[in-house]
């Protein structure tokens, strides 16, 4: 494929762009099968706190595959929690796990409500989670870690709106990172990977390498520690690949205009070399993640979309048209594999426009 080299400035990580599935307008009522879900989870009749916990558990399970149903379940969790709080007459406070469930439901609902302001949900979630910590028993280490994990998510979400033009890292972001550091060793690996993903996504919001690296370096070290124990942890490999892709983005975004306008190159600049090195490292991790996900039959199109982005960035840095075209073909294969996966599994996922446009251009020239 003969094509002019172009820096893919418009391409950003599809994992970041498509982090949340688009949620259609859903009823505020709990779905008809919600009570069945509660019964299946063996909640005793009349145990309102247990029913709320079961509703939230069901909602969390459905967040990725069925966000519309998850939305209704989260609303149900919050509605029931509010009712319990209003009618609670006992002199004893409600237990810490009640406030934890309430706070998590508020946070997750805010994430899904794309047409509404996130901040009010975050404020309410933070208040409930902190209420729960006040009631927490000293020996309940598991709930302590879970509550602080939830607060980390809330604080990082709030800190995202505080990123300023001068790229100063806010006190809240530092607070969130410190809290993450204190609990990370107490969390299961699956949750640690989720936390590392949140941290690296926050780092990507900054323009300066110093500010960005504060978060991405933490995420990389955390993921590498997991991979020493679990070398085939697909999600850890994937997020580590995204960390390295964020580093590449920094160098690509800061190439000077002369470098971008130069049509034929015989040598990469220092910045391009650094970007290329990060891209190759990212590709290695993403390809390993793809293989691991395939073995588990859990491969999702966003993994392939990110891999395609990496191939495109690599192609725009390699020297020589023949080498470049080979890498472009790898990008095309990843895009087509993602499309096939979406069609076969009938997934509610849209490939980034930049990838779709590139595929269309490629096919026109064949």
TrEMBL record:
Chain coiled-coil ranges: 252-289
BP GO terms, sorted: positive regulation of SREBP signaling pathway
GO (cellular component) term, any one: nucleus
SUPFAM superfamilies, A to Z: TPR-like
Region (Disordered) residue spans: 1-28
Localization per Swiss-Prot or TrEMBL: Nucleus
Compositional bias (Basic residues): 1-10
Predominant localisation class: nucleus
Keywords: Coiled coil, Nucleus, Transcription, Transcription regulation
Family of this protein: Belongs to the ETT1 family.
Name of the protein this chain belongs to: Uncharacterized protein
Species lineage: Eukaryota, Fungi, Fungi incertae sedis, Mucoromycota, Mucoromycotina
């Amino acid at each position: 494929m003969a094509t002019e080299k172009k820096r893919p400035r418009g391409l950003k990580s599809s994992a970041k762009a498509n982090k949340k599935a688009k949620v259609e307008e859903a009823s505020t009522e709990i779905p008809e099968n919600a009570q069945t879900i509660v019964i299946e989870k063996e909640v005793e009749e009349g145990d309102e706190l247990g029913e709320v916990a079961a509703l939230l558990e069901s909602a969390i399970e459905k967040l990725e595959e069925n966000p519309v149903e998850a939305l209704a379940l989260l609303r149900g969790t919050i509605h029931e929690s509010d009712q319990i709080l209003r009618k609670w007459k006992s002199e004893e406070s409600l237990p810490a796990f009640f406030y934890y469930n309430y706070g998590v439901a508020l946070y997750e609902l805010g994430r899904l409500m794309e047409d509404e302001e996130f901040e009010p949900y975050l404020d309410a979630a933070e208040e409930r989670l902190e209420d729960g910590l006040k009631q927490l028993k000293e020996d309940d280490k598991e709930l302590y870690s879970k509550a602080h994990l939830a607060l980390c998510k809330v604080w990082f979400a709030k800190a995202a709106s505080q990123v300023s033009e001068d790229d100063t890292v806010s006190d809240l972001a530092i607070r969130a990172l410190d809290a993450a550091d204190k609990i990370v060793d107490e969390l299961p690996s699956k949750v640690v990977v989720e936390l590392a993903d949140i941290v690296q996504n926050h780092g990507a919001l900054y323009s300066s390498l110093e500010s960005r690296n504060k978060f991405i370096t933490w995420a990389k070290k955390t993921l590498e520690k997991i991979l020493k124990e679990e070398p085939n942890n697909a999600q850890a490999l994937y997020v580590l690949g995204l960390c390295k892709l964020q580093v590449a983005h920094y160098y690509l975004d800061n190439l000077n205009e002369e470098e971008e306008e130069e049509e034929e190159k015989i040598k990469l600049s220092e910045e391009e070399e650094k970007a290329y090195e990060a891209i190759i490292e990212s590709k290695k991790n993403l390809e390993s993640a793809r293989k691991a996900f395939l073995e588990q039959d859990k491969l999702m199109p966003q993994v392939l979309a990110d891999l395609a982005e990496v191939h495109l960035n690599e192609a725009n840095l390699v020297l020589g048209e023949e080498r470049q075209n080979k890498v472009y073909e790898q990008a095309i294969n990843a895009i087509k594999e993602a499309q096939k996966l979406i069609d076969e599994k009938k997934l509610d996922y849209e490939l980034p426009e930049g990838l779709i446009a590139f595929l269309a251009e490629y096919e026109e020239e064949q």
